[in-house]
Amino acid sequence: MVEVFTAVEVTDVRFPTSRQLDGSDAMNPEPDYSAAYVTVRTSDGAAGYGLAFTVGRGNEIETAAVEALAPLVTGLPVADVLADPGGLSARLTGDGQLRWLGPHKGVIHMAAGAVLNAVWDLYARREGKPLWDLLAGMTPEQLVSLVDFRYLTDALTPDEALGILRAAEPGRARRRARLLDEGYPAYTTTPGWLGYTDDKLVRLAREAVADGFGQIKLKVGTDRAADVRRLRLAREAVGPDVRIGVDANQAWGVPDAIDWMTALAPYDPYWIEEPTSPDDVLGHAAIRRAVAPVRVATGEHCQNQVVFKQFLQAGAIDVLQLDATRVAGVGENVAILLLAAKFGVPVCPHAGGVGLCEMVQHLAMFDYVAVSGTLTDRVIEYVDHLHEHFTAPVRLRGGRYLAPTVPGAGAEMRPASVAAHRFPDGPVWRTPA
Amino acid sequence: MVEVFTAVEVTDVRFPTSRQLDGSDAMNPEPDYSAAYVTVRTSDGAAGYGLAFTVGRGNEIETAAVEALAPLVTGLPVADVLADPGGLSARLTGDGQLRWLGPHKGVIHMAAGAVLNAVWDLYARREGKPLWDLLAGMTPEQLVSLVDFRYLTDALTPDEALGILRAAEPGRARRRARLLDEGYPAYTTTPGWLGYTDDKLVRLAREAVADGFGQIKLKVGTDRAADVRRLRLAREAVGPDVRIGVDANQAWGVPDAIDWMTALAPYDPYWIEEPTSPDDVLGHAAIRRAVAPVRVATGEHCQNQVVFKQFLQAGAIDVLQLDATRVAGVGENVAILLLAAKFGVPVCPHAGGVGLCEMVQHLAMFDYVAVSGTLTDRVIEYVDHLHEHFTAPVRLRGGRYLAPTVPGAGAEMRPASVAAHRFPDGPVWRTPA
């Protein structure tokens, strides 16, 4: 019997993070970090895991979207899909009816990403490799076949993508060895949530430096005077040599962003993240021109590769923060890494949330080994919560992610965690806060 | 007792349009035109109707999104909401958890639009006016209060918006009278669906001219030779003085769009609609520079006012095609009309689908009376199907929409139509094609 996909299962999993104000920022004051958690199964009993990250209400919409995509996967021969993952991506993102709900954005696109990442997880397990190493072992031709170039060729052609990947081939083995030895640099967002007191901010900032982090991040955007005070305290706590990113989570319009960053400038912020709408390419470009040398960063809410393409074409960003679950999975993120390499912009992935650290580290490490070939100005975000719910939690040492060695793409959760946090009927949700 | 909203009901309604290939285009080959159909109800027994248009599969995701928004509306005093519709819009599009699913795009944003339009329908009924006349009777200050300026002020400030509206005040009464006398110009898409034979195309094109239309539209983008042949036939059928728009429904990348339009140029296409990804502002700008004097049009898939702002800032479009159900309802469309007026770009709304003609005519007519003040180069799309399912179907005469006089915003469907087409349990869907 030919092995086929037999099921795409989805579970609404939510963590009551709003009870502690972990994760609070200017636009998401009380998030309950959540996941539409996907399991793909095959007729041979194999499984792969993926998820779409949300912040609570609406996670049930995301699960409905995954259910709508399931019939496009079940019944397909596994070998055919793994031989051409780009084909499955085109099928899920190009369906003649579902496409209307995007195209390539929001709920339906994130659902496609969750399903595609689950298939990639199964693929990596089958190959006995962590995802980063599976990708870093593919030929340039295989990698280019993952990319949907329909809307990209004015900025990146298949030949240019091949050229980037071929240029990085000679150093792959050396960089792979170095990555396994030394890990990948991280920065931490743990000190800077808006809901934390000044004392907690200062204590956590000092701990971050002691732990070896060379960069921390503060949430800003609700109260300008408080932001100035908090950035000053953080700067005093970490000294002049540790980078401090600030993150407005889209709180501002263009003129407000420029004014606010002028007020923060004396305390040497390294980057301003999400200063305005994630859709506003031209707005980011205007802000970047005005706030330099402070860098402009965005990407966690960037809906797809077409918008990333424009951020790069317009010279709107200094730092590209891709997300593992916002776009259509591994294939679209390979496209985004190639675009960033073409334009010479460093990728510093968004993480935190539920399982984002576990997933996104694979993309950054693949980028280092086989695409950009460099760690310069590259850092992966790190947030120290919810890792205990994953079967292969990230490992950090001295402010660096250690390269994962467990086969897979990182999204598998512990069955007990899924059961406990299932919404609305899991025990965590049956007990009021 | 204070009147409050008591329910936001939603029904999955689908029409089996794929059985006739009505509505077939390059990216939506077999659509089943559908609606997440919304009814808001109050404690005094009042109701209002709205919908989100989709093309079949996934309509259940849209209904799930409406259900997620319902608790943000129920319990609110009706008088408070109608006194500040901008406040309700901010509540629905800014929820600290649901916002993550967009923000302001795709499934969750369309659901907000359906709910907000239903509230506007109730408001217009209560005032005894069609929506266009309700809006056109508001003061400039009231209209400006409907707009969320957070991400707009680099292109349009509240003062500039007030200036535009005040400048149009003197002629309101005269234009209102003219609109009631003469109606609003339309163009028809009926002849040009990809699934139609050449004979049917030619026959319908001739009928359109005989019916008084000054513009028709052809779908293109699947087969270049066929497109050249069909455009030639259409041009021969209608003569040199009738405008022919062509619509690629996002089929192309930037270089393909330019090449394809060069092949069609000998037959004098008036505009190229959706030449590429609706997210690609810079791509549209490049296409526009290359294909002039052919005009570039887009908007039916434009996710929100921030992207429309950039289309205008970048000089990327000649024609702005807003949609009644893609964005967050009447308020966001008022913002889009004001942006278009600021930049001097004509608005030619997208229609067709399910109820889009019925809804969008109000926005165009309001624009004429109280915003742009002109009909020059303005046309509303018209497609001649599914109108019979609405309680106040559009009325056309001599290629023009007659101004609706029935109170409301146009989205109310006949209860028998809703019952017959309810998915999956209505009689139309229990009977196989």
Main sheet record of chain A: 9 strands, mixed
**Helix/strand structural class of chain A:** alpha/beta
The total count of helices of chain A amounts to: 17
Could you state the oligomeric state of the chains shown? Answer: homodimer
Element layout with pairings:
The structure is a homodimer of 433-residue chains.
Chain A: E1 5-14, E2 34-42, E3 47-54, H1 59-69, H2 78-83, H3 85-94, H4 106-127, H5 131-136, H6 140-144, H7 158-168, H8 172-182, E4 184-192, H9 198-210, E5 215-219, H10 224-238, E6 243-247, H11 254-264, E7 271-273, H12 281-291, E8 295-298, H13 305-313, E9 319-320, H14 329-343, H15 356-371, E10 380-382, E11 396-397, E12 400-401, H16 415-421, H17 427-430
Parallel strand pairs in A: 4-5, 4-10, 5-6, 6-7, 7-8, 8-9
Antiparallel strand pairs in A: 1-2, 2-3, 4-12, 11-12
What does this structure look like?
The first copy, chain A, has 433 residues and is α/β, with parallel strands linked by helices. The first copy, chain A, folds into 2 domains: 137 residues, Enolase-like, N-terminal domain (Enolase-like, domain 1), CATH 3.30.390.10; 243 residues, Alpha-Beta Barrel (TIM Barrel), CATH 3.20.20. Helix content of chain A is 42%, strand content 14%. In chain A, the strands form 2 sheets. In chain A, strands 4, 5, 6, 7, 8, 9, 10, 11 and 12 form a 9-stranded mixed beta sheet that branches. The model of chain A has no long low-confidence stretch (mean pLDDT 97). Chains A and B meet through helix 1, helix 4, helix 12 and helix 13 of A and helix 1, helix 4, helix 12 and helix 13 of B.
